């Protein structure tokens, strides 16, 4: 009986939400404060509904459940125990079952479907399918989010994400066409400069792209950015607060991040003035970091998300397990492990911590009490050095702690080598900006300060470096622009930070 009640409840909730999404005014009711308990229950009810739907209609998922000998989760009262459902990921599901079999009824619809692919930065690109209902719903939320960040002034969006088959290039362009002027140029500095010069200073420009290209843009452009109303939206990887400060000093008005994934949904959550101020408070207060953060290293990206749309759980390893609770997806995702590290913090719980530490005045209040997602990046994007795990975000944070270094760096990479005696050596390579000569850095004057700063960012590295007890075990190398291993970089896709 509880099975049918939950399915009926999920159906009613979905119809109610469709009514709220009718206009930009009514959609605001979805984010009203005070309803998180209901949102969390709705999340589990709708996740259960998506599980039942996938179990009966998706051939691949049906076979996956049979292989795990799983039928359905138990109930705790009227709440389904979603955590009992087996976890899927790219290795045990996406790579094993053909794309068609992962779709509703085992086939890709003949019309109205966009097929895109991930960038392949971690291997072979993977194809994903998105139907019209999924795209339309995502478009409504992107429009709503952009209006909250940039107001009602007309927007001129320049998409500098990679074009072609990649998800951000295709879907962002289609989504933004409904509420803004859009010019999709890809990561082409010359074309972006020419467009801004031709259209002039009477536009609110929003340039979207990966962080490395956005930094390249502000370093290499001939334009005085402070004379224009230009803001950035970045995605695909994290950005340190030091890098955000750097971009703002260059004349960029605002810099926000959007969190999404080709595997799941392109717009799961986004930054706001609240999340940025909270992240900066974490940067500046060690006690707050100790109370809130679960992992050492660089600061996580911080977002707010709607739990009624995305059920986010944390695995024993601290990885995010997500269920898309929205219906009408061609290829449903139930308890999908994207292998990102992170955890969730309730908004009211944060307010109590801030008040206890007398830090509430340092954080801009949020307009909604939606839960907070702390996202630390890819679980597999680290190198190990004497028991410590070092991530690209750690290195980026160190680079931007030195103004003289951030000005002349274009990219970087991490590598751990092992000598004939089995001893490990940590090598951090920095690619210099165009026209900067590597000969100027042969003395390696930054090395001592650089690794000292890395110890401050990552306490595990500090212990590992003490264990190594040999300054020759760490190396900081400089390479001229587009040389050595950096010559293989493709500016169109996410950077490869591990050599």
Description:
The chain has 499 residues and is an alpha/beta fold. It has a domain at 383-488: GMP Synthetase, Chain A, domain 3 (2-Layer Sandwich), CATH 3.30.300. 35% of the residues lie in helices and 21% in strands. It has helices spanning 2-20, 36-57, 59-67, 90-94, 132-150, 167-176, 189-199, 211-220, 241-249, 273-284, 286-292, 347-356, 392-399, 403-406, 447-457, 459-468; strands at 75-76, 79-80, 114-117, 127-130, 155-159, 181-184, 204-209, 229-234, 255-259, 269-270, 301-304, 310-314, 319-324, 336-345, 372-378, 383-385, 388-390, 409-418, 424-432, 474-479. A 6-stranded mixed β-sheet has the order 6-5-7-8-9-10, sandwiched between helices. A hairpin with a 2-residue loop joins strand 16 and strand 17. The longest helix is centred in the first third of the chain and has 22 residues, at 36-57. The chain is globular. The termini are far apart.
